[in-house]
Amino acid sequence: MPSNKSLLGSVLPDTLPFKPAAVPALPGPPVPFAARPAPGPVSMKRRLVQVGLLAAGVFSAALGLKGFLLPNDFIDGGVTGISLLASQLTGLSLSVLIVLINIPFIIMGYYQLGRGFAIRTLLAILALAGVLLVVSFPVLATDKLLISVFGGFFLGAGIGLAIRGGAVLDGTEILAVYISKKTPLSVGDIVLLFNIIIFAVAASLLSITTALYSILAYLSAAKTMDFIIEGIEEYTGVTIISPFSDDIRRMITETLGRGATLYLGKRGFGSRGEQLDTLDIIFTVVTRLEVTRLTDEIDKIDPQAFVVMSSVRDTKGGLVKRRPLH
Question: How far apart are alpha carbons 249 and 174 in whole angstroms?
Fold first, then answer.
């Protein structure tokens, strides 16, 4: 195909006093996803981090089970609790029960969350079953309170690390997500109801004392899991309304080194009556540890600024401090 220059030269006479400008090439069609280059070292690094998190999660959960809960006939919530309860009542191997009871939830996860998630979860659960079957852990405590607290701690840490690695060691959350789509109940409500049934059965079949200590172990595991998943640096969204919005924006971007978004707004009815002045409203996201410094800096600029804070589940992109283990 002839070039743009040759085409123009064939149409315009050579005697023109100017030369036609080169026509820029039109952009081609987008590159198909399948034709894009393979993931680079970053993807491999992320895969190695996932494997490390899953391995640490498996061994931590196994330590919580065999080093604390199992020798003292305590149980936990979720599928793990059902497996522990069934093992105590039937005498079957806990390793076998954990795999068998989790299989329906793995299949459910395949259809809800994808093939990769299901494969990682299956491998993690098989690894946990293998560690429980092969590795021997010493009994680390005999006091029931210590058993409940630290058994739940190591089990919750293991489940949390596995979730950070892209899998689960307990299929309860998968079931809860599925049911929450069909009913007005939230995921947290479903997990709570599920565990209430488990502990009620444990109280009737084992003993009330064992059930109460098991509830304490579950609470310890739940809080530890939340800490591992969310981290100490929870995100906080901050909305700032002030006539000194430009100074506050520059403080956020230059002093704190964080991103800020401005959107145009109007004052409504405040302490001074009706005010319809337009002004820039600032929104930024910081970690919980940075909130105090942000509010202190805002007070230096405008002590009367109206500040609204709300919890943010997670963020992606932007100038936000990343959590560890991402």
Answer: 42
Q: What is the pLDDT of residues 38-88, one digit of tens each?
A: 444 447 888 899 999 999 999 999 999 999 998 888 888 889 889 988 988
| Confidence (pTM) | 0.69
Same-domain check for residues 297 and 212: no
CB atoms within 10 A of CB 312: 16
Task: Point out which residues pair with 269 in neighbouring strands.
Answer: 274
Nearest to 216 by CA among 69, 89, 56, 83: 69
HSE-up (13 A, CA, CB side) for residue 64: 31
Same domain, 157 and 294: no
Q: Count the domains in the chain.
A: 2
Phi-psi domain of 284 (left: phi exceeds 0; alpha: psi -120 through 50; beta: other): beta
For residue 6, is it within any domain?
no
- Domain of 98 in residue numbering reads as 43-230
Strand order in the sheet with 278-287: 261-266, 278-287, 235-241, 306-312
